[in-house]
Amino acid sequence: MPSQAQKSKSNSAIAVEELRNLIFSGALPAGSDHLESELAARLGMSRTPVREAALLLEGQGLLQVRARKGVRILPISIEDMIEIYDVLTELESMSAAKAAEKRYAAEDLSTLEITISDMEAALAAGDREAWAAADDAFHTELARLGGNSRVVTIAALMGDQVRRAKAVTLYMRPLPTQSNKDHRSVVEAIRAGDAKTAHDVHYAHRTAAKEVLINLLRQNRMHML
Amino acid sequence: MPSQAQKSKSNSAIAVEELRNLIFSGALPAGSDHLESELAARLGMSRTPVREAALLLEGQGLLQVRARKGVRILPISIEDMIEIYDVLTELESMSAAKAAEKRYAAEDLSTLEITISDMEAALAAGDREAWAAADDAFHTELARLGGNSRVVTIAALMGDQVRRAKAVTLYMRPLPTQSNKDHRSVVEAIRAGDAKTAHDVHYAHRTAAKEVLINLLRQNRMHML
DNA sequence: GCATGGTTTAATGTATACATTCAAGTGGAA
DNA sequence: TTCCACTTGAATGTATACATTAAACCATGC
User: Fold this and answer.
1) Torsion, CA B117, CA B118, CA B120, CA B123, rounded to 10
2) Is nucleic acid strand D under 7 Å from B111's C-beta?
3) Whether residue B60 is found in the same domain as residue B82
4) Where among B73, B96, B115 does a domain terminate?
5) Is the CB of B72 under 7 A from strand C?
6) In terms of Cα–Cα distance, which of B96, B145, B137, B86 is closest to B116?
7) What is the residue range of A87's domain?
8) Which of A14, B3, B33, B148 falls 20 to 30 Å from A100 in CA-CA distance?
9) Domain total for chain B?
10) Distance (Å, rounded) from C-alpha B128 to C-alpha B174?
11) Do residues B41 and B112 both lie within one domain?
12) CATH number of the domain bearing residue A25
């Protein structure tokens, strides 16, 4: 028998996945409305699993289920971005500090270092998509190393909410060469077990990244994404 | 016509409310399993809205929907408590700092001060339930004054998750006289516009509260609630 | 006696039919 | 023409019937 690609996921789980893809790919643009029956037809299933998926994604802040008006894909405002970056700044900085306190063995930090290498390679190749993917992986792994599962979950949710906006600004901003130095410094502090430095360096890194992004959006009059 | 008490909420919304009440009241104990059909019968509605409510509450970390095993009311472990308190410590301290930066007018801080007065009154009367309610109100209002809606939401979710555990320890711990002094100091720093002090005082307050709670649970061998 | 394979069954997962509700359209009267 | 009440309809919200699935049970053979 050939490899069983599908592990018989429920339609509801498939709907969550598909809807997320449609949202992040822009196939369902921010601010647009869609009837449950339309989405059900599009995904080739009944309204029930689609509705369950929509309610789940509503809880994750990606869309809104409105009576008789369909689901609305939520746009992200600059104010939203500021809120989200502030939350991420606090929780990731805490994660960096906690990670430093854990005195991880070198091999436990290898995944984190690979993401940095990937970023450097992507930067050298001028591949912004690859850089963004590696940057995401860095922040995800940093949250994981902090050892707080709730922080991991919250960071993932916040990351999803700003994903569209980051994609838009990816080609507008200068190449993030400073970012990589910051990342290396954070890892260095974690390896040295210096919690305060890990925290403060990452905090400054996130704060600077926020400023760049917000200014970019303001200068280009992009108040909603 | 007499006053219309009910504003025709959907059964799904009613189910969310009722299930939350059942969980917090202990009618559905932590760790217990319940079939969707049982809960539906209990609430006098069909499985559909109950299921939707269960999926929502699953997203909020209060229960787990498991195929053919019913919904399990999630217990809270000491490790969970530590995670939650760490998140709350970071986000509330940030809120305190942001609130200080906003230079609120005196009247905007009146709600916060009322919660402190309520705590002092409850403490004088030895009414621990009233103290806990006012303490909750203080932390909720502090998050609100921080001006970050996502922090408000996250703090509410985390608060819900530890509600049972706090209720259990409420009568085990010494009367929280130090707590009130801390609260007053935080408000004083916010009023003075001293962000760093507001942050640090609240951080210390939360950290101390966490220690008290964790030690209490450990000493009493309460590893799951 | 134990392992093994099929059958039963109880519960979720899904489809669908129906109820409800709000908004838009329609018609009549001022 | 405009306003208001009524009708109508389209979409969600809900109930229910059905499909699916995995665990438990039972029988059968070694």
Assistant:
1) 180
2) no
3) no
4) B73
5) no
6) B137
7) 78-224
8) B148
9) 2
10) 10
11) no
12) 1.10.10.10
B65 in contact with nucleic chain C (CB within 7 A): yes
Give me the residue from B52, B98, B149 closest to A55, CB to CB: B52
Nearest to B154 by CA among A126, A158, A138: A158
Residue type, A6: Q
| Same-domain check for residues A219 and A178 | yes
| Residue whose entry in the numeric block shows the structure tokens 């760049």 | A212
Name, in order, each residue with C-beta under 8 angstroms of A136's C-beta and a sequence gap of 6 or more. A159
List, in sequence order, every residue forming a beta bridge with A224; answer none if it has no partner. Answer: A77
pLDDT, tens digit only, all 225 positions of chain B: 333 344 578 999 999 999 999 999 999 999 999 999 999 999 999 999 999 999 999 999 999 999 999 999 999 999 999 999 999 999 999 999 999 999 999 999 999 999 999 999 999 999 999 999 999 999 999 999 999 999 999 999 999 999 988 888 999 888 888 888 999 999 999 999 999 999 999 999 999 999 999 999 999 888 888
Output b/e per residue, A78-91; b: 16+ Cβ within 10 A.
Answer: bebbebbbbbbbbb
B39 shares its domain with B112: no
pTM value > 0.85: yes
